[in-house]
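Propose amino acids for all 111 sites.
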């Protein structure tokens, strides 16, 4: 599984990069053999206004055929970088589980 950080205008420190990798790997560890690539985009939504201004979008490409494959996108906005990443990773975990389970159900004739 390849994890790429894309289009980040903010300065990303090594600590932040490690956090992104650890959250994505923790969220997808159960599906690691099914994930081809993960792209993470983090940005500042509205500048220094003090509201939900960090947004994290994670796109995971799931391997397989039919309903169990394709792209899954999770988004989360929050007041800081770490909370935005954690929220998006949590959402991604559940969306990938649904996608993989749907593919398994269809393969076994229960879809």
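Proposal:
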């Amino acid at each position: 599984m390849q994890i790429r950080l894309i289009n980040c205008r903010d300065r990303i420190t090594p600590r932040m990069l490690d956090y992104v990798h650890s959250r994505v790997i923790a969220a997808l560890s159960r599906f690691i053999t099914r994930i081809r690539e993960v792209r993470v985009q983090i940005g500042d939504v509205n500048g220094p206004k003090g509201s939900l201004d960090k947004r994290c979008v994670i796109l995971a490409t799931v391997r397989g055929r039919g309903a169990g494959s394709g792209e899954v996108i999770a988004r989360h906005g929050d007041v800081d970088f770490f909370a935005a990443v954690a929220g998006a990773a949590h959402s991604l975990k559940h969306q990938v589980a649904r996608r993989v389970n749907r593919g398994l159900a269809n393969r076994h004739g229960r879809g």
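The helical segments are 14-28, 81-107. The CA atoms of residues 51 and 79 lie 6 Å apart.
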